Amino acid sequence: INAEYMGRIRGVAASVLMAEPMQVDPPAAAPEPPTTTAVEPPKVARGAGLGPVKMDVEDAPPASATAESAEKKRIFFGSLEASEREGTSKTDAQLELARKAGNISDGKNVEYMELTADSKQAKEQHEALARNIERESLSRTLVVPTADHEVVTHLRMLNQPITLFGEKPGDRRARLREILARMALEEGGPVPLPDLQAPTQRVPDQQEEVFYVPGSAMLRTIRLWMARYSLPRAHQRVQAQKEMYDDMSRQQEEVMACRDLYAHLKNYQLQSSQVGGERPVAGVAFQPSGEHMASVSWTGYANLWSVPRCDRVRIFKGHKERATAVDFHPQSGRGLSPSCANIATASADRTVRLWSLESSTPLRTMSGHTDRLSGIAHHPSGRFVGSCGFDHTWRLWDVERGIEVWCQGGHARPVYGLAFQCDGSLCASCDLASIARVWDLRTGQSILTLQGHVKQVLAIDWHPNGYQVATGSDDHTVRIWDLRKKRALHVIPAHSSVISGVKFQPEIGRFMITSSFDNTLKIWSTKDWSLLKTLMGHEEKILGCGLSRDGKYLASASFDRTWKLWSADSLV
User: Fold this and answer.
1) How far apart are CA 300 and CA 362, in angstroms?
2) CA–CA distance, 415 with 405 (Å, rounded to integer)
3) Which DSSP symbol is given to 429?
4) Radius of gyration in angstroms for the set of CA atoms belonging to the chain, rounded to a whole number
5) Residue 336 contacts by C-beta under 8 Å, 6 or more apart in sequence?
6) In a 3-state reduction of DSSP, which class is residue 396?
7) How far is residue 479's CA from residue 529's CA, in Å, rounded to a whole number?
8) Are 371 and 389 spatial neighbours (Cβ–Cβ below 8 Å)?
9) CA terminus-to-terminus distance, the chain
10) What is the tens place of the pLDDT at every residue in 408-435?
């Protein structure tokens, strides 16, 4: 029998001696090896798993080995504290030997390597980021007052500025929360706000002190002239509106006229497309008589086109930078001589230029802006032209003398659009700070601030009724403001991108058009502000739009270097 087999037999025998004996029947007779002697069948332990085996008498384990195996297999119950103490003492001894051998450092003679510049910068950035995260998480748990006058009072008590330039109440409250969070981190705990037990008076955000800017005698004369010009026109307009409201038959006629017009507007389609220059076309404008249309492009040139044939009549060259806006004199084609200043253009070269219909060179060049210009518009009288630009101002120019008569500040960001009321007494301007303002030309005061857009305002226009203003913004909406109620009456989600142009139908105002960077031109009803028609045809964003005085033609200027003419009547 080999050694492996004998080892298994010895293990079984040891387990038999340790286990409770159990009598088993002898196995069936089998031939025995010739070198062994048969013995009694062994007693097998319960659950041993090997079954009965045969064993030689000579190979039986001795009694001493059996006792030692039994002692090792015995299970002890009780505490192991002594064994653990013994193991701990051995571990301590081994650590001490390793420390003496120098394999373990004791921390006394340790050399440190300096961090590299990149590592130091990364560490500082990480620490700054961690501080910002901790400050932000702490600021969320702080309770600050919601009343603006209380926020101002707490800022004053903390020796902080009560307001910053262009700061709104929500921004001021967030600034107070951030200051308190920073103080809490520095002092290691929350900073309680002082209790305002005594009633406090409301602290105005800005000083209500009235101040005046010195003006010239010429400016005083111009303001008096504007008052004399605008008051009779305003009286006529209001009187006509009262008669309309009192006459039911005229109201019914107006309803029928609007219904027919809206049905006609739904038939508008593309009639002509012309390349306006080698660079994008920035703006278009129709002559009041409807005979011509002007366009300006980023090449710096202005073009005069015939309507409706769309043939180029003249090219105006004079600007040294890209031209940004164009407008016709209110009496152009209606009695104004073609040799007079019929067209005004604005440019990024900071100048306003006046052009006649008979010459390709400018009649006058007016300079005064300190940054590029973005918009231009004629006063209803035609005596003045207004311009606005990125120097945060809009200016009024005398057309006949070619001089600046008025420079109006008040905007915190670049002024992008300008429009005059039909009476000639008010002017509306919009800027890139999402704010529009209404100015009284007779006094020079800002009489109303139009706040509501959440992004920059790029387009503005007056309704012919004289008390409604439309603004188009980068927030993809058009807001209709009522000066009588001093708020926005309607918010129109007009386009899916930036709104670049807003125009009301001249003289009547029954519909409105808008242009956008989504490559579309849309027509809206001014009765219920519903969409009447969407005009598509440009391949790139539309930068501006124009509308003829009779409402028969629409024009759009695009970044694709073309301008397009739209009409419901076929030109063929």
Assistant:
1) 13
2) 18
3) E
4) 46
5) 329, 342, 382
6) strand
7) 11
8) yes
9) 119
10) 988 989 999 999 999 999 999 999 999 9
